[in-house]
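re: ur question from yesterday

yeah so i grabbed the chain u mentioned. its 375 aa long if i counted rite. heres the sequnce exactly as i have it in my notes:
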Amino acid sequence: MRKVFLDYNSTTPLSEEVLETMYPFFKNEFGNPSSRHSYGQKAMQAVDKARLQVASLIKSRPDEVIFTGSGTEANNLAVQGIGLNRTSCQKHIITSTVEHSSVFNTFEELENKGIKVTYLPVDKNGLASADELKKSITSHTQLVSLCLANNETGTVNDIKKISEITKEKGIFLHTDAVQAAGKMLVNVEELGVDMLTVSGHKLYGPKGVGALYIRRGVKLQPLMNGGGQERRLRPGTENVPAIAGLGQACEMAVENLEENMNYLKLLRERLEKGIINTIPKAKINCSSAKRINNTSNISFSGEINEAMLVKLDLKGIAVSIGSACSSGSEEPSRILSAMGLPRSELYGSLRFSVGLNNTAEDIDYTIKILNEIIN
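ran it thru and got these structure tokens back, copy pasting raw so excuse formatting
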């Protein structure tokens, strides 16, 4: 049976080059980066190189990048690091209703601790408006956190426009770029953000490693206590193999960014055109908005997405209903609900996210099987 993986927004396969980069640090180069002898210094050199490689991907300074155990941890550090800062008094923070759970749930937790939170509504494309943001800002607002690219729909927020508002008001701006990095140009200076999150396993790197860009001058409250690693913001011995792998994945993304973007767009367009032309009830969600090139969220009105997902899987095709972090929930997608989709579309939507290992034949096979299932 043909195997087709169309869930690259949940994770990506580890590239061979990344695996080769990581391997020595599992075996021969096993030193602790904090040790001052040669073993430790070789490990620290690998960490420093990776920091430079991540910085090159997002166009930052290397000393503005710290490593974490995941994108979720980086998001938590950014949001809680401002929200729980000891120097703060009255606090107000802002996010949207369509953020990844690692941001949205963190805001809810801070709200439970007494911090004032505003959840910006979104339009039919899942985008928060600059006007709504302006209305929500108060004299106590300290942080705005909005994703660069949505993990379920692929829509891209105008973070540069948002940053013009936050800069004028002296408010910190964080963006979750986990789904954007490696799929579109990401430049922290052009975006105007104070913090930005990247995750290894979303760009053909290893799981269990992430990175947080923190602009010089931004002070965060650490989530843990310990040693002096990662500017004392992420204490604990660094995961050197994973960090080296993340760095290599970022370097490869920089080298092939334009070529990769074009290839992913061709695959997505082939998928969407094929589905729309053969399945009359299908509708591409957010088709009028700017999206990252690999993501397509499609509603099949009247169908049940859970049943479609299972039947596709039985035919070797892997897709998703929404975020992998929200799998198992019996409720419809929080993100699609916030966009105002009718019930028939909410329960009949699937996310297709293509990747560099996919082929045109994969897409054609998927369209064929979808038609058989729905018919």
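noticed a couple things. The domain at 4-12+257-374 is CATH 3.90.1150.10 (Aspartate Aminotransferase, domain 1). also The longest strand covers residues 295-300.
anyway ttyl
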